[in-house]
Sequence to fold (216 residues):
Amino acid sequence: MNNILEIINLSHAYSKNENSITGINLDIQEGERVSILGPSGCGKSTLLRLIAGLEKPSQGEIKIKGIKASSRKNLLPPEKRNVGLVVQDKALFPHLSVYSNICFGIKKNKTKDDIASELLTLFKIENLKSKYPHEISGGEQQRVALARSLATNPDLLMLDEPFSALDKDLKETLYSEISLVFSERKSTILLVTHDQKEAELMTERQIMMEKGSFLE
Ligand code: ADP
Ligand code: MG
Fold:
């Protein structure tokens, strides 16, 4: 099996006296779906930002596909890491159609249409193709955001509480539909959430986090 993510003894601090993350170790293999489960403020988003290259560690190391991506001394820029991050507030481009939002990051013009069509079908949003974000519901926007993040075929897709703005019934439909898409595509997923049910329904392995550290 291929190692996608390797985190070794990682720490981070926003201010001098207080760590947001302390001594995190984590390995994720290709095709694995893992979640980190913990209360608000425990450091989940910070950990994802570290993996994305948006924050620099104060100690330790992050390797992506065996390549050193983050340490105290070196930081591979976010655009050079083939990782995706989907957050709660979707961040679709308001002036682009659903179709153009999904195609946005795809470089090869030739394959653009095939990739977009496949994702529109997978996420059951073909009928929304020409609509703009303000014309579709929150659940639909979240499907588009997930489709867009898979369009570039990231080595690792990170999801930061992606469903927390949605109501309960809608969430439960999305859990099963979207985990099916992930398992069909053999996507490597790291989800962070405070919702135990979400973690259990979306991923095969759950790690508990508290005050910046993983609980063993
Ligand atoms: P979670 O995503 O689990 O809610 P965060 O990673 O957002 O937790 O936050 C972890 C800790 O870092 C919290 O104590 C939070 O207040 C602090 N924090 C988060 N972002 C910043 C920031 N930009 N500057 C300073 N402190 C921050
Ligand atoms: Mg957070």
In short: Residues 93-152 form one domain. The chain has six helices and ten strands.
